[in-house]
Amino acid sequence: GDHPDVQERLRRDRTRIPVFVEEALRMDAPVKSQFRLAKKNTKVGDLDVPAGTTMMVCPGAVNRDPNRFDHPHEFDLDRKNVREH
Fold this sequence. Notes:
The chain is α+β, with helices and mostly antiparallel strands.
């Protein structure tokens, strides 16, 4: 594989496998985009969204948000908030 250090660490401590899976899902979200319909007038950030508006959301984008994850573009088996993706 590309990261023998990670492979070796997982072989030594199999309890880290669920963390590995969560971090892998954070790095490469299986759902790239979804469409949502605003049921009522709402606000997304500074944007007013009228009821009836179809929006495309990219749930994986938040997984790379530096305000949410330290070093978001790095794979980290020790990430404390890995389940927040």
